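S.,

Sequence below, as promised.
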Amino acid sequence: METPILYIVIPCYNEQEVLPVTSGMFLAKLRQLEGEGAISEKSRVLFVNDGSKDRTWEVIQGLCEQDEHFQGVCLSRNRGHQNALLAGLMTARRHADVTISIDCDGQDDINAMDEMLREYAAGCDVVYGVRSKRDTDTWFKRTTAQGFYKVMSALGADTVYNHADYRLMSRRALDGLAQFGEVNLFLRGLVPLVGYRSSSVYYERAERLAGESHYPLKKMLAFAFDGITSLSIKPIRIITALGFFISIVSVIGILWVLITHLVGFTVSGWSSMLCAIFFMGGVQLLCLGVIGEYVGKIYNETKRRPRFIIRETTLEGDEGAVDHE
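The prediction came back faster than expected:
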């Protein structure tokens, strides 16, 4: 087996503070792997600027000028983490034999890359980086994250527990991923659908080295809801079952009202009537909201808009690329 060309793909959004710190770590890891003969000298660190509002792209350009191991891609506008990551993967796919995606904040253990590459050499096309524990998270974040994975599993979505977007993918796996045309991206659920042989590498996550997290509670909840509605139709089936159950209860209620009326035992039920109206109104609005979310996703999918547009890049031949081919 020839020495593979590795591209470390790193999406960035407003990361001017952390990039000068973590870029040296990524470069040192790349050189270490090259020195050990695990990867080719053509391997690179590929930063993807997701339409940052600060000087992130200027920092990336400066790094590329300092060392040829650094490469950069700048999207035309902010498209979100998943689209930026896909843009990096599809760009790297044209140049690399294998990619490893990782966040730029330095929280994921870069030494896990050694084990990932060993798994790849053993025949795995996908290797997931999985957190062994969540001691660095707050109680709220740890509880909600674990609850998210359990809910996803209960709804039938195929995801890897405690895995985010730190993973290795071979070119063959990337070719498979390129065949998925979803506009509503949730890569943690799409990658397992690609298939091929996979394995997991476990590591401990550290604190962020610099800057602030760009995933507040609102974004995390939106991301979780997108993941559920992008991968599973079980919420629609739950609504159907709920509607069927309420219909049965309603029929029983009607029969009870008729019986009490016929026997002459009628009592004015203002409170019970209001409770029933509020309950049914709430259930209907909730159901309409969930159905509307699916309709909205169908609306976006039918437009077939590009998931990313590359404005500028330091890689030759990739200027002005639109989505993947």
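The two ends are 28 Å apart (CA to CA).

Coffee later?
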